[in-house]
Amino acid sequence: MPRFASACGALVLWLCAVLPASAAPAGSPHAQHQAAAPIRTPAASVAAPARRVEPFDLSTWPQLARTSQRPTVVVFSTTDCSHCPAVLKALHAHSARQHLQAPLVAVVMDMAPGEDDASLLDDPHYAMAHRLLAFDGPPAALRHAVNPAWRGVTPFVALLRPGAAPTFALGMPSDAKLRAWAAPEAAKR
Amino acid sequence: MRRGALWASLLLCAPLAAQSPPPGDHGTHLQAGASVPPGTAASRPESKPIARKRAVLGTGAAFAPDGALWISALDKQGRLTVQRSADRGRTWEPPRVLDTGGDTVAADGESWPKIAFSGPRTVVISYTHPLAKPYTGEIRLLRSDDGGASFAPPVTVHHDRQVITHRFDAIAFDAKGVLHALWIDKRDLEAAKASGRKYRGAAIYRVESRDGGRSFGTDTRVADHSCECCRIALAPAPDGGVAAMWRHVFEPNLRDHAFAVLGGAAPANPGDPALVRASLDHWAVDGCPHHGPGLAAASDGGYHAVWFGQRQGRAAVRYGRLSARGEPQGAARDLPDEAAEHADIQTAGRHVAIAWRSFDGQATRWRAWISADDGQTFTLRELGRSTLDNDHPRLLRHGQALVALWRDAEGVRVETLIP
Description:
The complex is a heterodimer.
Chain A: H1 2-18, E1 53-56, H2 60-67, E2 72-77, H3 84-97, E3 104-108, H4 117-122, E4 131-135, H5 139-146, E5 156-160, E6 167-170, H6 175-188
Parallel strand pairs in A: 1-4, 2-3, 3-4
Antiparallel strand pairs in A: 2-5, 5-6
Chain B: E1 5-8, E2 60-63, E3 69-74, E4 80-85, E5 96-97, E6 114-118, E7 122-130, E8 137-144, E9 155-156, E10 166-173, E11 179-185, H1 187-194, E12 202-209, E13 220-226, E14 233-236, E15 242-247, E16 257-262, E17 276-277, E18 294-297, E19 303-311, E20 314-322, E21 328-334, E22 340-348, E23 351-359, E24 364-371, E25 379-386, E26 394-398, E27 401-408, E28 411-418
Antiparallel strand pairs in B: 1-28, 2-3, 3-4, 4-5, 6-7, 7-8, 8-9, 10-11, 11-12, 12-13, 14-15, 15-16, 16-17, 18-19, 19-20, 20-21, 22-23, 23-24, 24-25, 26-27, 27-28
């Protein structure tokens, strides 16, 4: 069994490497079966909206945290989270204002991939997300994998930076937190 | 598993003939009040069709006056069902699919179909029916006059028919048999938006039915500025009405809890009832906790409450005593589990039970804290664990018995805590 799991893991990693994030169009029956792709930062812009709903399973978070090649914002949301749209919008605007080109990743926690992908992709709240993922597995285990202290409050924001531990915030991160997260990028400019 | 632990695998996917009359909006059971627009099938708002891939486990439960345990839940096809156990969960009758007239039913997290009894014949089931537009819904109710053998077509309990938020329903019969229905409502937020005013959060609204859910009085606002996404807790009030506790948004964005007594000795139409601040965590967050409180009557006329919140940066589920007016009494105590979530509370005399779930990294634990001295001291009890997706724990009272119920993707577990 461990050997099988290991082989499956290798296959997943290989698929991640070869499949671009936008490989399947919205509503494609293949979309929900594809492995999560690593973050691929477009050369010129990160404004391209998500074109499919990817699964967020137990392997996704470590992969996201490990493979982000530039500052990345992950916003965990629910379809009934009334505060989430404003935070997504504000973080998108912040990234643009600071010229961070930070991919914005939205993760929907109360809909599984394949349940209603079309409406998630049509939802204007997620329109600025570079990638759109949905919980695919027991929510408690998935939340625990992200941060054991997180009790499901949304929006839950993770600020990722290459080579650094993720920074978390309930709701909109403070200016100080955003500044600290973006400081290395700012220093490069 | 300890003494009294009962495991029952549910056959919720078994399709059985619906016991209800044909679908319709209000059928022959017209609502009271002049402000109700026509509720014909043609004017029904568009439902949100959802083909759920994940198990939708939100389950309501209540004891019937004859001691039978009933649950209301969705089956694997997303249909509303009821199921009955005459032996406190040891064995279950097959599930019966109820006719909701095509409504989808919210049954996940803080929303689940609730069931309540009044006397030997009246049974009601309420649920939130999500509509196609995001964040919108309506509160629907099925009613039985024959002890649950059959149910009338669903009706909408509120008179407001805007396609806006009416969600997170809560129902309870008071000691006089008056049915109270409360929900989170955004009509005031929408009105404020339309006139360019700011408005914190949502509102709590309610209706009363004095004929077992056949008709409803006017929509009455309980409070402005509630949280938008947390369940409402109800408990019997000593004077015959019901007490309500909900997460509120106190100025500027403090998500503590509010309390109000409704009905009973209160004036028939008092406008907004007196609102009391019932928790003092001072948790400032512009977010959705998805984590409503629990409330139960105390033997001395006050209340026992549990809630989730963040106090001085520390998140916890806390237990506290409230006065008869809902004011905090003494210091709140953290539950003995840092990962506790979605706690429920129930009382019988001086016995107090609190049940919750917590994920330990491998499995979700089902745990209880039990007191025999009105909440002065508690004993921790492990009730079970599950590696599967699971619902929030529920606590029920029947006579002097306190019973815990928990559903996971495999079935329903029932555990008698007291006696």
